[in-house]
Amino acid sequence: MATFLVVLAHASRMYTGTGVVIPYNASDGLNHLTNIIYSFHMPLYMSVSGMVYALCIHDYQKYQDTARFLKNKAVRLLIPYVFFGICYVAPVMCLLGFTDQSYLRYCWDGIVLAHNNRHLWYIIALFEVFVVCGAVKAVVENVMPHGSHAGRKILRHPIVCVLTIVLLFAVSHESGRAPYFFSLSSCAFYLIFFYFGYCFHTQYDTVMKYLKHPAVMVICLAALVVLSEQTAWHMRMIKALFGGCFAIGATYYMPKHIMQCAWVKKQIKNGFGIYLFHPMIIYVLYVWLGQRDIQPWVLCIGIAAAAYLASDYLTRLLRRCGLGVLIGEK
């Protein structure tokens, strides 16, 4: 669900006036849709990552060796980051004229220093979040007298959770002061959402009992739509929470047979590859079609669908060629 939203928002963002291409026809509706999706789609992505992390730590007993965990994440995140940054994002940005830097300069400044790494900011920020998680887990477990079991218990204590949330809110609030390289500011801002996902998984049944209630979902959606144009830090937080709660609550009403559908399972498997491929395809399609007199909604949805399907195909192609490591696979 999050992947669909990301692809659609990257396509509709061209109609906000802040995209790399300004289409021939404007659309206030697509501008507003982009603001709504951008309010929560990446916080949702980070929260889902936190949920999966908690699932692996507590339910599957994985990631117990911190050094091995971080090595695994380095391989599965940094290899795709470097490959797609240098061999995919940089060439497209330079060839389409979206930067006045040379290819080598863009690789260094945009990718290595992460000053303009486009959608790849999420990958390096997520890796940094995992480094923070690994460090905290290792410190807590090493100082506890009974090792990892006691460490995991104290990390889930309500008082510890509340204090952690307060601390991470402060870190997020000050994230703009972080150095503007290596996605450090993004890591600082999104840590709180990763932790929300972690806490949500540990209290899934209790929280879901409220999120799935129709009245709660209506309130969350209404608040998201009303506040979507607000840009202050506290409003960004509120929008992200309302949007995330609505999206997660909506999963309760998703027919169970859909999740068992073979096509859906393939999309879940290919989600990371789709994320890596789709933005540059969107850029190319808008350069080709954006200045033509095409109805905005038709053009936007058509480009989003084409980018999604092409990214899905390229992901499967890399896997068939034995290059799954480039899309974060073992």
Automatic annotation (TrEMBL):
This is Acyltransferase. Residues 2-313 form the Acyltransferase domain. Keywords: Acyltransferase, Cell membrane, Membrane, Transferase, Transmembrane, Transmembrane helix. It comes from the Bacteria. It comes from Butyricicoccus intestinisimiae. It holds the Pfam family Acyl_transf_3. One of its GO terms (molecular function) is acyltransferase activity. Belongs to the acyltransferase 3 family. It is a multi-pass membrane protein. It is found in: Cell membrane. Coiled coil: none annotated. The chain crosses the membrane at residues 38-57, 78-99, 119-140, 154-172, 178-198, 210-227, 233-252, 272-288, 294-310.
